[in-house]
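Q: I have 323 residues here and want to know how they pack in 3D. Can you give me a structure?
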Amino acid sequence: RGKYLKGWQAVREERIKNQIKMGIINIKSPLPAYPQNLPQWDSLSDAQKDLEDLRMATYAAMIERMDLGVGKLMEALENSGQKDNTFIIFISDNGTDPFSVVDEVMLKKGLLPGDANSNYQPGTGWAYAAVTPYRLYKISQHGGGVKTGAIAWGPGIFKQSNAIISAPLHIVDVVPTVLAMVKPDVKEATLNSSFSGKSFLDLLNGKKYKSTNPMFFQYMDNRAIRTDKWTLVEVDGEGWELYNRKKDPFEVNNLIAKCPKTVDDLQKTWLNWWITESGNKSYKPESTKTGPNYDPQGDRGSGPMYQPSAMPSELSNKYKNPN
């Protein structure tokens, strides 16, 4: 409690510095501008900052409890002698939830983040910090919405260790990878032909590996196609954006007007995938503007301004901020 009173921008900047130091991101990569639909932390009232701090402190406490649980699992594997023959892959959920649609309901019930039966969402501010250094959040098909880190561990199963690997993988790749581990007599080509995904066991063993290409995404009026070089992506049904991920991995410089042939080729490929997979003859998405659970979230004009809730005075001493 009190740790997050410095605000979401300060937290994000600290994380970027650490990511550069650890070699996770390139210092030369352009970073996204501050979202147009997110108020500056200093513009918030003390009551808003107080509730936002509690919101994120509660979220952090949940992650800490999860970490302790993972530690207990690892200890049990070691005590049972199974540690070196166990494959563990830890993958966080894609995209942080930027919405706060239940705040009003919770506060009317007198419930704060951390209370039993409370169900707060992170909100746009802390979602912005959580997806560092990417743009946008859950349900978006930009990097912040579909990309997530993963940790693979298996000291007696594969050879890579202490390595940061940037190859793009998909959740559907996990099953053929596990089968390749437990059925070494079956050729990977046979496994890969049986699943939508592709085994990445070679990648874990430090061998040459070619990722699935391209990858397709769609949710409501958000969609994307991602190749080794390009991302063609749309948020809130506002039209395509194009990014060269080799030079611009965090989707900062929109090249939509400069590369019309690339846009045309990619959107045709995406639409062909959509028609094949959905069975529809055209693309008519559900709009985020009309649903009860979501709002447009675009950070360049299409998303409404985030309105942080304020700590009610009658509840301000319940989890009193030490600062």
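Q: Anything worth noting?
A: Residues 84 and 249 are 35 Å apart (CA to CA). DSSP finds nine helices and six strands in the chain.
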